């Protein structure tokens, strides 16, 4: 089954320097042929539950390990003072830097390839957002990077993920885009001549969609490709809880990782407001907490997430943080791939939301971030490969030579350097950062996550 958008005319640079006009649909059909090949699962992964479970438990075991250059981002505390947390650090990562943001929190940027001289400075950059509590080590990330030869790649790890401790009492939500906005500004400042393109998985797909919709012609991303986007969070949460396996397996597994994150970083919450500390204690006390319970007890109540908070009810939070209702304002080429048997995202948009820039493709089968199909090894009948790899790579190659026609062109905000190595956007007081020197990297411990499903 396939859903398609209304075509949009965009400029495509050709090798002859002539400019041809094509619709997004025409370009995708011409340059992404593997997207229209049928997804065919192996006999032993023949439904959405099996595909999803395989991704969670074994999907990345056959994928090569990736070596990254690492840049971490740490934030300022609310009073502007330095907010460091001293821990014993047992796993030194020599290529990881810390960069501080507005509220005292920490992000990490993992750069691929490890050798920065492998590509010219103007080489396109693929910016990746993973699924819930995911990191750059997810199998679905590594399988793309292992075959990526046309782009640099930078993975934005969420707060508390990828071996980063929480350094502020704020986590991240389905609707907040300020972290990715700041990370993209940092990347643009580091590689000012390189075009940025986005690849989002699950929760990261929703956040990336909201970012480009909010930014419009100020978007730093020239295009996005999104796999297993959760779309309407409220509707999909209700659908998940309507089934036995959703209530007893998926929902607790998704909530377990957030509970573990709060538990391991309780000292941060103990030193925060009584309201946040109380909510943190409540979520840790529930051994099999669902994601909805976590968001109801903790996320929707924390004022630090933004002026929209607190929300009166969980559905209000999820409706606000959904991405389906912002599709009409997406101004960059956007390819979405979802599966019709995804047990976590069962409610999909009927079209591209009225945006001429959106192309939605729904496969028959694939589960949630699965799409495992028989591998090429005849010696191992249980080897697999991910069907989505080729469509994603074809899309990235296409977008590297494609520009969107807009009335004023894309005009991201100007970045200004201030004292003490602080950078900020001139018209966005919330978008600013400061790199942390390598010595302070030693103070950051590796966080452990023990949830059943990570990266969704």
Automatic annotation (TrEMBL):
One GO biological process term: medium-chain fatty acid catabolic process
Domain of life: Eukaryota
GO molecular function, one term: acetylesterase activity
Active-site residues, record numbering mapped to chain: 202 (charge relay system), 342 (charge relay system), 368 (charge relay system)
Keyword Membrane: no
Residue span(s) of domain AB hydrolase-1: 124-369
SUPFAM superfamilies: alpha/beta-Hydrolases
Alphabetically ordered keywords of this record: Hydrolase
Family: Belongs to the AB hydrolase superfamily. AB hydrolase 4 family.
Protein name, per record: Alpha/Beta hydrolase protein
UniProt source species: Collybia nuda
